[in-house]
Amino acid sequence: MEIRKAKISDIKIIHKLINEFARKGEMLPRSLNELYENIRDFFIAEDNNEIKGVCALHILWEDLAEIRSLVVRKESQKKGLGSILVKNCLNEAKQFGIKKIFVLTYIPEFFKKTGFKEHDKSKLPQKIWSDCIKCPKFPECEEVALIYEFKE
Predict the structure, then answer these.
(1) Distance (Å, rounded) from C-alpha 96 to C-alpha 101?
(2) Virtual CA dihedral for 44, 86, 16, 21, nearest 10 degrees?
(3) What does pTM read for this prediction?
(4) ∠ CA(15), CA(8), CA(58), 5° rounding?
């Protein structure tokens, strides 16, 4: 298994993967345009030239980033791949000097295992709601907010 940054040639596969899960209501859909604009955010997990999972670190402010669009193909789940992708995002955030990383998720237990702590969604900056407004579940969303903070 290789973890690497996304390439332009990966975008259509990333789009398909994310939107498969979005159709099930498990995450927000992403347009091709949005993915091309944010390609630098994405890490890819690849095995035998097949993308098995993706995850993005989206920087919002000088001290805040979001982990988003974490997807692992069904047949590759429960093997630690999601955790590896999240850890790559956290390592990159640390390299950038970002102190806090948040996630909005329906599976908080997964992120708690990686060191994230539950956080009051309403205390997150308004800037994060730009994606939420696009969601058909807004404002009756059941996603849980979690934050990872680097120790000084």
Answers:
(1) 12
(2) 160
(3) 0.88
(4) 65
* Whole-angstrom distance, CA of residue 1 vs CA of residue 142: 33
Whether omega for the bond prior to residue 139 falls within 30 degrees of 0, making it cis, is yes
pLDDT tens track for 21-62: 999 888 888 999 999 999 999 999 999 999 999 999 999 888
Q: How is residue 138 written in tokens?
A: 């807004």
> For residue 30, how many other CB atoms are within 10 A of its CB?
21
Q: If you count them, how many residues does the chain have?
A: 152
**Three-class secondary structure of residue 145 per DSSP:** strand
CB-based contact 82:110 (threshold 8 Å): yes
Strand partners, 104: 145
What are the two backbone dihedrals, phi and then psi, of residue 101, each rounded to the nearest 5 degrees? -130, 130
